[in-house]
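Hi team,

As requested, here is the filled-out complex form for the pyridoxal-5'-phosphate run. I kept the field names the same as last time so the parser does not choke. Let me know if anything looks off before we queue the next batch.

— J.
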Amino acid sequence: MYIGLVEGSRLAELLAVTVAPRGRSKALASALRSLIVDGRLLYGDRVPPERVLASALGVARSTVTAAFDQLRGEGYLMGRQGSGTFVAVPVAANGGRPDEEKGVGDPAIDLTVAALPAPPALAEAAAAAAEALVGHLASNGLQPAGLLELRTEVAQRYCERGLPTGADQILITAGALHAWDLLLRTFARPGAVVVTELPTYPGVIDAALAHRARLRALPVDEGGWHPEEIDFSRAPVLAHVTFDGQNPTGGWADASTRNRVVSAFDSSTVVVVDETMIDYPHSDQARQAITRPRPGQPTVVLVGSASKSFWAGLRIGWMRAPASVVQRVVAVRAGQDLAPAALNQLVVVELLQRHGEIFPQRRSMIVARAGVLLTALARHCPDWRIIPPRGGLAAWVDLRGGSSTQLAIEARDRGIRITPGPRFTHTGTHDGWLRLPFVLPQELLIEAVDGLADSAHSLQPARTRRHPTAATAWTA
Ligand SMILES: Cc1ncc(COP(=O)(O)O)c(C=O)c1O
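And here is what came back:
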């Protein structure tokens, strides 16, 4: 949670960027909805009383009352004046996404997710896995560290990358995020200091905050990773880094950067290197580097996933750690999900065996889509500064004084969904930045850029006239 206890002044600060240009109840409702939808206000958060928010925003109380009424009607708020008003999640009767609004640009172009549909080989792999499952049916199917077949296959991949690894060093999880969650459970007591990149993948932040960790930033920008800026006044127990296709900046660290970042920590920190995007370097040069655990340095845990490489719906990931760490995490897991799903693991065994055949095609498709997105942005949004991604599935764009929160609200009305920059931070900063995934087909990417350019254009006069310093209002 970014706001914690939602105080009137803090909420007003977040809303200042979005409400002021229009200042009416619909705009306020839209801005609040946006904070709920992108996760900066969480389910159950108590919002300030109408009177308090109205005075913090400098608007009439009736404006706030009308906005709250609208959001209660839509299911984004619950409770009444007097007994407290809380953030809620609308129940979509049709099973759709809660944040889908009827009549708003149908169907929406969703640029909030950086994940691909399954490759054609997945259906064949699933059929082969169903046959292989027969061999497991006489057992209870529960292997807390994962099936030996998959651990062996994953270990083999590390060996091929030049990192000798045994199956006892591998733990299979329900995705990379689950691996991070298990490591938090194992190493981070409530109040412990945890370092995460700033900006980073939102799930990494949410999981750490759910464990009541105190977050410290490892700043990342187009110049790379800046470990010298980490606040080491209290020793971190864990650090999370993504050297390979950094999400959202698209960075890819060379060997010396990896070494510089890892060796900034001492042996009291477990450094978790999340390689979720490892299969998407945009050049052969980027592909070479691997984060190599070294004697005398902190413990390094490598985390991998089938989600980006194959299909997120499989919910299979893994960690590579010293066998003693694997054993500790397995013990923690016993109180959580017991073991990963057997059938899905067998599907991933099949897919890993066909990796060399699946990947070249998938990677070239992504590099081509990245090119289409960057070209369209350069043509239609020439004021923006695009950081060319070295890897991964998204580009990080500097809106040069624009607000990605405002843009998200405006674009939504045109049927385009984007995630504003602050969602990638634990500090509420980076509103001047936008992450744009390039996983959709080329024609949709071009249409999306068109819509974003129109949205930015319609915001421009309001921003320059009334909000010249909007982006700085986020700095916490
Ligand atoms: C760095 C990073 N870690 C974890 C995840 C989630 O991965 P999984 O689906 O394997 O849990 C993502 C998804 O984008 C990611 O970018």
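Two things worth flagging: The longest helix spans residues 355-380. The two ends are 14 Å apart (CA to CA).

Thanks,
J.
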